[in-house]
Amino acid sequence: MDIDTGAPHRANPPRPGRAGSPDRRGLRGALAVVTVAAITAAAGALLLGGQASAAPTTLRAGAEADSRYFGVAVGQQDLGNGTASNVAGSQFDMVTPQNEMKWDTVEPNNGQFNFSPGDAIVNFATSHNERVRGHNLVWHSQLPGWMSSLSGSQAKSAMEAHITGEVSHFKGKIYAWDVVNEPFNDDGSFRQDVFYNAFGGGAQYIGDAIRTAHAADPAAKLYINDYNIEGQGAKSDAMYNLAKTLVAQGVPLGGIGFESHFIVGQVPSSLQANMQRFAALGLDVAITELDDRMPTPASSGNLQQQATDDANIVKACLAIAQCPGITQWNISDADSWIPGTFPGYGAATLFDNNYQPKSAFNSVMTALSSGSVPPTSPTSGSSSPPSTYANLAASFDNVGISADGNTAAGNLDGGGSSFSQTALTNAHAGPGAQVTSSGVTFTMPAAAAGSNDNTVPQNQIITMSGTGTLGFLLTSSYGPATGTGTITYTDGSTQSYTLSSADWWATTPAGGSALAVSSTYQNRPGNTTATQSGNIFSQAVTLTAGKTLASVQLPAGSPVASGTPALHIFAISTTAGTSGGNTVTVTGPGNQSGTVGTAISAVQIQATDSGTAQTLTYTATGLPAGLSISSTGLITGTPTTAGSSTTTITATDATGAAGSATFTWTVTGGGTTTGVCHVTYAKTAEWAGGFTANVTIANTGTAAINGWTLAFTFPGDQKITNAWNGATSQSGEAVTATSAAYNASIAPGATTSFGFQGTFTSNDTAPTTFTVNGAACS
Length: 778
Hints:
- By secondary structure, this protein is of the alpha/beta class.
- The chain is 19% helix and 32% strand.
- The chain is globular and about 80 Å long.
- The protein starts with 35 loop residues before the first helix and ends with a strand.
- The model is unreliable at 4-53, 377-384 and 670-675 (pLDDT under 50).
- It catalyses: Endohydrolysis of (1->4)-beta-D-xylosidic linkages in xylans.
């Protein structure tokens, strides 16, 4: 069990202070022995009358019937207890080692590994036909003393060496790893432990740890695990934002572990919705350390409430396709960590002090037999999570529109045919044109003819905001196509939707859609045209009233291929709705300017709401460092970093309706005189029309850089679509990048880096000239 001494789940009483997690070493030993036959008979007796003989009688059988697992935490002390080991081996089909794979056990001295305790747990699991969940690789607690003496770079190297050594040893034997354990404080801030500090703060160490583990065992599912993230709140929001960022960066994160240490009657009602929003990112969501404690001695009322709680937890998992299973922490109440950590509490598992099944066992078995949503991914191995994009244009991956007389790039259908940009312009649907259909106003792609201008849906996640109605501007190639996707709201709830489109040659739309654009001819290979109409359709989806859109996951459609129907999406838009929805209008203050070190004159943002008696709440993105906005729309502060940023102000009312305004804020002067700096620009990947790059800034001077702004100009026609570990803005080919809070300071001799993804049409030449805070770099 791995929870820190911080505040517990918000429903829990204050937790007694302690150092580290409850270490199972030295806890009480075996109690009275009962046979597995007696346990199984008791389990059967708890099932419904005449169904007992036909229904599963073990947790593993019940879970496997739903294509899930039901696991348990096992320690070496349990292997010497015949009763405990028999229950662990017969009732469960997944094993998590309690302490045997933690850092202080595995690597007590730097570079000297001790795998014997972990091997014993793996051998036990193998002999009982159970899989193993590795626990854990990177955790602020239970670290050997030698780690505390390491410098930042030494700690980074030690972390990577430890992960590589341990994962390589157990390669092929571990279903999943809790790679990073408990990275957050309860307020949603990062724990500033040795790993956080070694990488200069922020989430960099988490991405590095997951990539290192993946390199050592590409088949293992890789998790981040934490407690108090089961319900929606600051900590779960922080975990969600971290997960979304890592997925967008291509980090091979496979899942999120919800520890789930509860008190009877206090399981959060938002558990399922909260887990679902992580699943919508393409991640597995697992209950990893379940127990449900109560005051002891246990009352009949609390035991019945525990039965209700545990059944509801199981049902929440079964309702989510990406929930692979549940693990109980400790085998029974007899060996539970709870009494030793929470005096006066206990009885937290499905088996009592005599290893007999409790009422909660019966309720869980009933829940397991009640049906489930089939899992969408296997419960072993790893899968690539879907890509997340800041907007639809960033996800464009197909050229559906070409120029007359230069049709070579066009390939809407896999056979080289495409829309004519001239014909679309004649139909009032040229680049950037407004098209209104199905009650929604869309903007046609502003892409140049012959460049990527639509997305072929294959589970991509598009970040969006809006209320009322969600509209798609779409078509299909090589026949009609359909697909189902998922809408995720800011409260974590989800909604499915189905898209259907007629073929782009057809003028009759599919049911539920409308003809939005009809051009008079198409382009063909060989710079030719054909007198055949090209048609684009629209489809609208009504969003849940009072909720604000967070993202849209596109359907899992087919790729473009000759003879295979494929969907194409040219635009997505939202509207406040035509049936009772409010419209919020934000008045932009115009472009703003300031000077480093000089307080700005307060800027009050103005907005109006079509609804009556509505209170607006204001938020902002892209404000210059040092400035902030109040909930009432007042921007104040003193700029700390020079540079130009794109600022977006959003006003939201109580119904979820929102409006925004965007403007530029330029800060001049100030900054840090850096002396000498060196910048390395490296393309990390390149494909037709797109690329990713990493930029490293080295402080080769003698003074620290406290807040940096990097400027450069692309020599080609590149456009940045999204960035990480820094914020970017672009005007023409000129790019400005500013530091994040966690990498703003660069000590003399130190480096920091950030990365981005971009598009290009014909020239992806790397820039060679850079400045940091106005000073030229080598």
